[in-house]
Amino acid sequence: MLKIGITGGMGVGKTIVTHMFAVLGVPVYDADSRAKWVMHHHEALRQELLHAFGPETFSEQGELNRTYLAGVVFNNPQRLAQLNSLVHPHVRDDFEVWVASHADKPYVLKEAALMYESEAWKQMDEVIAVYAPMEVRLKRLAHRDAHRTEAEIKAIIAKQLSEEEKMRRAQHVLCNDDRQLVIPQVLALHKSFSSRGA
């Protein structure tokens, strides 16, 4: 079985691309949603987070206080690195358990915005970088994240690994620029991965 990573910055459309693979019957692991699940349900991690970030990390009902946590780490690289060092090892373990449950498939996908930053790429056989030019991304994000200003969106993007670096590191680049057809690109990759992972 091949383990294929899929990544890309905000607004490139990696979720839509990932849905296309899912429609083709490919199991997809969403690292962001699984990280939230693990932070809620892994008791040892919950205790580590409480110790590192204080009682405000969880509400009285036991829900993760994402707004508080985001505020603590957004402009503090040291605190962000601390958070990632706690969460990412548990997500890697969770992914390996999930992979084992899909051992009958030729390949699986792991969608992760922080594929390289979290070093999740080391678990992958290959990585797809989804690409869209900045003007297209900003247009999409202005529609999707209407509660954010363009300056806020650009600030978030600026903290992510550059698209150029992601494309340089990835084995495959899928262009989602609203000009090239995406489905044929997905089908070509699916055919290749299916034949090699079978």
TrEMBL record:
GO biological process, any: coenzyme A biosynthetic process
EC numbers for this chain: 2.7.1.24
Reaction(s) this enzyme catalyzes, per UniProt: 3'-dephospho-CoA + ATP = ADP + CoA + H(+)
Gene Ontology MF terms: ATP binding; dephospho-CoA kinase activity
Main location, first listed in the record: cytoplasm
Subcellular location: Cytoplasm
Pfam family, one: CoaE
Keywords from the named record: ATP-binding, Coenzyme A biosynthesis, Cytoplasm, Kinase, Nucleotide-binding, Transferase
Keyword hit for Calcium: no
PROSITE patterns named in the record: DPCK
Role according to the record: Catalyzes the phosphorylation of the 3'-hydroxyl group of dephosphocoenzyme A to form coenzyme A.
Classification via NCBIfam families: dephospho-CoA kinase
Name the UniProt record assigns to this protein: Dephospho-CoA kinase
Species of provenance: Pontibacter actiniarum
Gene of this entry: coaE
